[in-house]
Design goal:
- It is a single chain.
- This protein is α/β, with parallel strands linked by helices.
- It is built from five helices and six strands.
- It has a six-stranded mixed sheet.
- Bound molecules: inosinic acid (IMP).
- The site of inosinic acid has 17 residues, from strand 3.
- Inosinic acid binds next to strand 3.
């Protein structure tokens, strides 16, 4: 049986942007979200080979240290012609200083080196995990399919947004306002981004 989230929830992130977004989502449900960073929990190395594995690893680590239910997410871009790369290494392709213009150039270079031809099918995945102190686990995944476009288009968003054109739309994620990309429609229709889709599934199952 799925379990509802109640009371306090540790968010296994040191990223203030992610924490802010999650607080917005959880506050209306009476959930008090505190970050692993605020509690002084160290960030574990993301050593798993899958998004779901890394989300679970991070949630387990925060739950074990704090004794509170803990939430974590992991996400990235998978390119078909690159056998799913950068995948779980999406953040690392940005290098130490998280330079995603360089990461985008690398994606384009690797596609060219392999002789890949457009359309360059790709998808974003977002995996979410919640772990309770008694070992109970809830996991969710969201995915959005699209194609990659070069040169990059748009200045909005982050990461690989300027090269990702979601199926059925004519603007890249880099050309969209964040609210449009991440919105959680209240009317039951499907959200757009992988993250919003994963949260939709979580909200349906775990929020009262
Ligand atoms: P993490 O989930 O914080 O480990 O981040 C994974 C990496 O995937 C980010 O640094 C981005 O490069 C990339 N990524 C994940 N979601 C998105 C998105 O919505 N737009 C663009 N890039 C993304």
């Amino acid at each position: 049986m799925t379990r509802k989230i109640e009371g306090r929830l540790v968010i296994a992130t040191h990223n203030p942007g992610k924490l802010w977004e999650l607080r917005q989502l959880l506050a209306p449900h009476g959930i008090d979200a505190i970050s692993a960073g605020e509690l002084g929990v160290a960030e574990p190395a993301e050593t798993e080979g899958s998004f779901a594995g890394n989300a679970l690893l991070k949630a387990r680590a925060s739950c074990a240290v704090t004794g509170l239910p803990a939430f974590a997410d992991d996400s990235g871009l998978c390119v078909d012609a690159l056998e799913g790369a950068p995948g779980v290494y999406s953040a690392r392709w940005g290098g130490e200083d998280r330079d995603f213009s360089a990461a985008i150039r690398r994606v384009e270079r690797e596609l060219r080196e392999r002789g890949a031809q457009p359309p360059f099918a790709a998808h974003f995945i977002c995996a979410l995990a919640i772990v309770w102190p008694d070992g109970h686990v809830e996991e969710f995944e969201g995915r959005v399919d699209g194609v990659l476009v070069f040169p990059p288009r748009g200045e909005k968003g982050f990461g690989y947004d300027p090269i990702f054109l979601p199926d059925g739309l004519d603007r890249t994620f880099g050309e969209m306002m964040s609210a449009e990309k991440h919105a959680l429609p209240g009317d039951g229709s499907r959200a757009l981004s992988h993250r919003a889709r994963a949260f939709q599934a979580l909200a349906l199952a775990c929020l009262a």
